[in-house]
Amino acid sequence: MDLSYILNHLGEERENYFNAVSPPVIQTSNFCFKDVASLRVAFTNERESHLYTRGNNPTVEILRKKIAALAGAEDALVFSSGSAAISAAVIANVKVGEHVVCVSKPYSWTDRLLNKFLSRFGVEATMVDGTDIANFRNAIQPNTRVIFLESPNTFTFELQDLAAVVKLAKENNIFTIIDNSYCTSLGQRCIEMGIDIELHSASKHYGGHSDVVAGYLLCNKTMADKIFASEFLNLGGIISPHDAWLLIRSLRTLPLRLERTKATTDKIVAWLEQHPQVDKVLYPFSKTFPQYDLAKKQMLWCGGLFSIHLKAKDIDEVETFCNSLKRFLMAVSWGGHESLLMPACSFHPNKQYDDSVFPFNHIRFYIGMEEADVLIEDLKQAFAKIE
Ligand SMILES: *Cc1c(COP(=O)(O)O)cnc(C)c1O
């Protein structure tokens, strides 16, 4: 892959816009035609034309070409959110009476899509522990159309053996869809591994600056044509040209940001692993991670997100620790320039905590662009508050 060509040049037809290095934001809803014949051509082939921005927009097209090439995919569609991309991918491939097998503990809105939303339309889902391929095999029914994966997930980081799942799915004529937001296409080569649809919340690493919400869908041309002609145009969850421009801007530095966040995460994880006030660190590239070998086999990159189990006697102590951190912002999402934390004990009102889902002392961290030493100093003073 010629990475810098993709990031700096692919899809950018500079001679068409005054040789500007940075592409224009084509902020228009519609496009006009010189005669009836050319309008007719656009109606017949909206996929390849500029007719209306709900279909194609030239700024969005630059982004589409780049993210497809990064993933090694034939085609790409860009959505207004990761959730819109996930919904379109699943809805396009199921109908009433059919069934989806999904890895347990996926992104929360994926869970709701499958278990609340689509059940209203007669589509059933079985959630399986994805760490054992046998669970997928046992969950497949004659009406199973889709296996939905998320490897690793973004809270406990369990993986699925992607090669094994792809093989099983192909033997049973089932589509595979993966949420690859954690790794990005650079960190995990899902399309090359044979997965049919690769999805991303571009609000995370791809956007990288905590200022855009967007989603990517990568697949072959046949599937992209099919989704474009129905879920994409019909549900209309498209991105604005301005947000697409921001995402093109962010792509220029994606490899640098991934490299930086990995280096800092590795340092902080190593420091936390030997810390007496930490019970456990969950991070796929840590030697203590139960699926370390699989992580090393199928992931080219790991970084940014990880979780710890804090050695704390109760929720109050967890809260004191979290409230004491100053350089980590307490917030959802991740993938931006700023370090974050999110404690599981915040998920339930009135501290009515259900430990069977996530232990009360589970805290997720995201490592941004800060210096490792600054973050470690901050952690030190927060640990000192609960000693
Ligand atoms: C954030 C996230 C999503 C949803 O993306 P939005 O852009 O917020 O809609 C989906 N999957 C994962 C793993 C995420 O972290």
CATH topology of the largest domain: Aspartate Aminotransferase, domain 2
Oligomer classification = single chain
Cα end-to-end separation: 50 Å
Strand order of the largest sheet: 1-7-6-5-4-2-3
Descriptive notes:
It is built from 14 helices and twelve strands. It is of the alpha/beta class and 387 residues long. The strands form two sheets. It has a seven-stranded mixed sheet, with helices on both faces. A five-stranded mixed sheet has the order 8-9-12-11-10, with helices on one face. β5, α8 and β6 form a beta-alpha-beta unit. α13 crosses α14 (372-384). It is globular and about 75 Å long. The chain starts with a helix and ends with a helix. Pyridoxal-5'-phosphate binds at residues 81-83, 107, 154, 179, 181, 201, 203-204, 213, 215. Residues 81-83, 107, 154, 179, 181, 201, 203-204, 213, 215 line the site of pyridoxal-5'-phosphate.
